[in-house]
Structures are given as structure tokens and as C-alpha cells.
Write a structure and sequence with these properties.
This protein folds into three domains: 78-91 and 301-440, YVTN repeat-like/Quinoprotein amine dehydrogenase (Methylamine Dehydrogenase, Chain H), CATH 2.130.10.10; 130-294, no CATH class; 463-531 and 615-763, MetI-like fold. Helices cover 37% and strands 27% of the residues. The chain contains 15 helices and 31 strands. Strands 6, 7, 8, 9 and 10 form a five-stranded antiparallel sheet that branches. Strands 1-29-28-27 form a four-stranded antiparallel sheet, with no helix packed on it. α10 (618-642) crosses α12. The protein is elongated and about 120 Å long. The two termini are 34 Å apart.
Amino acid sequence: MSDLPLSSSDQPKGWSPGRTLLPSGEQRARLRKWRYFKNNFSRYGVGSGGIGVVIALALIFVYLFYEVVPLLRPASVTPQTGYVIPGDVHAETYYLTMERYQELAVRFSSDGVATFFEPDSGTIRRQFTLPIPEGVTITSFTAGEPRGRLVAFGLSDGSAIVAQHAYNLTFPDDRRHIEPKLEFPLGEVPVVLDPDGRTITHLALERGSQGYIAAGLTDDGRLMLSRYTTTTSMFTGEVEVRQQSHQLPTPPGQTERLLVDSTHRSLYVADTEGRLHYYDISSPAQARIVDSQQVVAAGEQITAIDFLVGTLSLIVGGSDGSLSQWFLVRGADRVQRLAQVRSFEPHSAPITAIAPELARKGFYVGDAAGTLGIHYATSNRTLLKQQLTERPITHIGLSPVNRAMLVLDNTGQLNFLNLRNPHPEASLQALWGRVWYEGRSEPDYVWQSSGATDDFEPKFSLIPMTVGTLKAAFYAMLFAIPLAVMGAIYTAYFMQRHMRSAVKPTIEIMEALPTVILGFLAGLWLAPFIESHLPAVFSILLLLPLSMLVMGYLWMRTPATLRQRLPAGLEALLLVPVLVLVVWACIAVSPFVEVWFFSGSMRQWLTDVGITYDQRNALVVGIAMGFAVIPTIFSIAEDAIYSVPKHLTQGSLALGASTWQTLYNVVLPTASPGIFAAVMMGFGRAVGETMIVLMATGNSPVINFNIFEGMRTLSANVAVELTETAVGGTHYRILFLSALVLLILTFLVNTTAEVVRQRLRQRYSNL
């Protein structure tokens, strides 16, 4: 043990200044205990910190999984009560539905009565009889889109009566009370559909932005179309109805069902041979059959057909239990034709009832074997198939908020069920595959989580954001890696010591710059500047490296007496004025270059050759995010290069290797684990960056690697949309899934980096 100086209080008797004594046994024991305490404190402190980091990461994973797992839960129905259908049990039930609080349901029946009852008990609250003229009978029925709450009865005299079930909500004694009522938007007097007064055998009705439209097939085979607009008197409350009637071409075959969409542009006729005919009625006077398709297998019949919410898609059920979705697709000839978009898991018996959801692209199906099926169109999921009864299901009534349902069989037995189906939109296909959305000509990857109307079809593909994340990181690394790594090599290996002590801390301080400031500058200054000086940007990228090479060549040709006056390692200072001059010259000449080579505008020239240019694009993000990533890569790589043992470089030089040979064959291989770790750390930083891409990209969820177009990243998407979502909703949980994907991506990148770094370290550890 080496000699240790002792304090005056610890010196033994007889000690005098100038003498050095070994510590006593008691002192050595005390020193050992102190050293043992410090070692254990450091070991357990560092270990506890590491374990804490692992636990924190694990908790983040657990929390994200906790928010995402509900997306995977299937739908379920729970029977509550069963009873005989309220009202006249001998009358045929035409339609069943509920109001949003599930306190009242309504049944429209063939005797012209609307029966409002409590769905959990069947207790009748009120009944309304439609004002049908004497001597006139009900011959057909239709219900409009469920959100409009419209129904219409076709009559034997060629007229129709239109009704709307409505509810008054009051809170007497602070308790909710719902009072049902029946309204007649076209008046209580039936409106004429067929001027000839023939019986209406089939009927379709829908309300749109320009009024009401009704289509009816008469018993003599004529297809009539009428538009109704109304004006209500401010003083008397009387409704004035104006009508335009047209006779359409007779549909082929024997008609089974009529449907008209809410835009009043399309009429569909289903026949008994399994064919669906599409009429273009945008101009009723020139209405014609545009397309006819066989929508069920040959020899089978259409047993149920209905619109999804929005009246763009049709769900067709067949006598063979098949289910398919159809909508209009514009072809290369600019003509819209019916196309089968997807098929769903078939049932084992003929489809007897289809009930669309009121606010989503889901639908509920009953078949002749008593099986209930829950399906969702966009995600192409069959969420549930459950045997509810032994008899055919004839009608399904849904709650507008999808929490309860009524199921009626052919014996008049009505079942009230609780429903749980919170997240049908999410599936592997919808999130990661191409999906054929309504109104599009082909399947595609699309993120569009909200729209202007309630019938909007949410599009939750994560592919655009994932590609955008990789695109932003790629261009940022393309800009940052050469500058950061080359700068680290020069700073650690060639730069003069005093200059290095100033340069390295300056670059590392850049890492403390708030990224919101970089994003602000990139979006408001850099993006417009690049747009106005595109030739300058590419000239700088080309001429700066060339100017460095030319300056280096000229420096080597400078007489040695002049070169020796500048201390070794300070040569980089000579490049500063050259680089500044080149940058200034490129910017100054940029307008003339645009005039000479690009007809005055390089941006317009790019557009003319088919390259889309957005002001906030990947080039802007690459430069701005590159500056944010450079300090991370530079600092770690410079430390790794500077830490290469001096005896290795000195030994290489002593054996006759040049400085560059030593750098290439000794320094870089030895420092390669650290350089690789620096690059991967920078990549992880770029993948997770939020504010720069949020402010400088335009946030367009597109899929391409065009450097002149923007993108949307996973992190930016979460930052933009999380505050606008309903807590616990599908959109909310899919954003958490995005965060989980981002966390897994960075975890995989860092894990791969560590594995590669360890292998590089083992490979070059013998140097």
C-alpha cells in the first residue's frame, strides 16, 4: 500500500513535521469500510437507475397496450327480455327502430298504425293511426335512411303518405321524459305518385338537400319518379307541396325492391332473378338504365338489400346466405357502373333482414335459421355470428348509438338485447392493407379520420404515416450523416487542439436548441426561401464540395514556406470565407439561372415535367431536422474517434503509413462501433421528431419519396389529432396504436444498433 498523508488529528504521538508514516490498522479498516460503502453505493445506485429505466419503458408499453387492446375485442349481444310484439299481432310488421336513449321503440305495421313502446318491457306508450282515406288500402312500404326517420306507405290509389317518427325531450322534476309523436312532412293528405291512380306495388323514398324524392312501381309495370319540395306558411303552418313527376323506362324482369339515394342521382331496382339495375336519375327527364349486374350467384335470389349509412353502398343478401357490398365506380370511360367491392362471411341460411347502423359503415344481418350476424364494411370484418332463435329473423331494430337492438322472428316474438360493438372499424386489413373506400375507383392506403358529414367513412390506414416517418428520417439522415461524421473525423483527428476545444462545445450546444424554434424557422423562413431560390439550393449542394476540393488543391500547391506559417490543424479557417463566398454567389445568380434554364420559374418547370412541388416538403424537413440531428451524431462519433488509443495511430505512422492510411485502416475500424451507434442514435432521434415535421411538412398523409412533396409522420399525427378525439373512441385508440408502433420501431432500431455495435466491437477489439 502506498504512503498516505495523515491529518494532524490522526498522527500518532512522537510525530513531527517532515515525517511520513503508514496508516494504522484502525485507519486502514476505516478506509476499507469507506471504499466499500462508495463501491456498493455506486453499484446499487447505477443498477437501480438502470432497472428504473427498464421499468419505465415497460410501463409505457403496458399503458399503450392497455389503450390499444380494446380494439381487438369482438362484438357481443346479451339477451335481456322477450315478449310478443306490441300492437296488432296479426298485422305484418314493416319496420322497427329505437330512439337514441333506448327508452322508446316504434313499430310500423300493415294496418297503418305506428306503435311506440318501451323496448325493455313491451309496454305500449302511444299509438298513432295514419290518415289513410277511406276505401284505400296499403299496398307497399318503404323506410328512408334511418337518420332521417322517414317512412312511406304506398296506397292502392297511386298515392303515398309520408310520415316521420319524432320525439320531444323534456326534463320535468329533473328527470328525462320522452314523448313520441308522428309528423307528416308532406302533409297529412297523401301525395300523388301515379297520376293514373294505379296501385303502388313497390316504393322508395329519400330526403335530400333539394327536397324529397319518391319512386314507385305500379301494378301495370310503370316506374314513376316524383320530386317534392315544400314551403311552410309562417302564419298558418300549412305545408304547400310542389311536385314534378316523370315516368322512367320500365325495369327489366320482375321487380323485388326499389332504392333511391339521398343525392337524388341514383335509383336501384333489384329483380327476382338476382340482378341489380342502376338508373341515372340526375336528370329525370333523360333517366336511363346505365348498368345491370348479377349480384348473387346464378339461380339464387336477392332476399334482402339495403343502403349503408350515406346511401353510397348497397349490401346485398342472397338466398344462398351470401353477403356482398356494391357501389358505383367511375371507369376509364368516365361512366359510373356497379362494382362488387367486397364479400363477407356467408350465412348458412338465406338472408332475411339487413339493418344498417345510423352513424357507421356497419350492418346487422338476420337469416332464416335465426342467426344474427354483425359485420363492418370498411374493415371487412365479421364481428359476430350468434344463434338467437330457432325461427327466421324478419326485422332488426337498432339503437342510433349502437347499445341495444330489437330482433323480431316470424312468429311475432320480439327480443330486446344489449349490444356491445365499440370498435368495428379497426382490423389488420383496414390499418395496414389497401382498402376500397366509397367513392374511389380502386383500393388504396388512406388516412382521413374525419369529414364534413355524418355519413363520412373514416379511413385509418397507418401506412401513409409510417412511410412519412421513414421518409422524413431518410432525408434528415441523408443531410446529417455526411456533415456530422466527416466533421467528427476532422475535429477529432486533424483539428488543432485549441480550435477543437471551441468547435466541439459549440456544436454540442446546438442540441439544446428547442426543436419548435427549428420548426418555426423551417416553416416560415426556410420553406419560402427554398421555393424562391431552388437553383441556388442545388448549386450550393454541388459547388460547396467542389470548392472545398479546389481550395485543398490550391493549398497543396502553395509554397511550403507559406503553408508552414499556419499552425497544423487550422487550415479549415481558410475555407470559411470561400464557403461564404460560394453560398452568396449561388444565391445571387439564382434568379438568372431560373431565367436562362427554367423559363423564369424552376418550380413551374418541375410541375410541367410532372413533379409535384409543395412549399413545405421533404427537402425543407431534411435540412431542418438534419440540423437537429447533427449534434447527436457529431458528439458521439467524435468521442469515439478521439478515444482511439494513441499507440495505435502512432504505431501505424511509425511503420510508414500515411495519415490517411492510418485513418482508414486503423482509426475508423476501431471507432466504427461508436460511429455506428452515433448514426443509429441520430436515426432514432429523427424517427421520433415531432415539432419540426409538424411545422415544416404540410402534414399531408401521402405515400411517396418525392423530395419536393410533404408527408405526415406518426408522431406529428398523434400531436395533431389526439386533442380532437373522443376519449375511448376508435380514433383515440388508433392514435395510441400509432404511438405504440413508433415506440416499437425505435426500440427495434436501437436494439439492432446495439447488436451491430457489439459485433463491430468484438471484431476490432484485437487492434
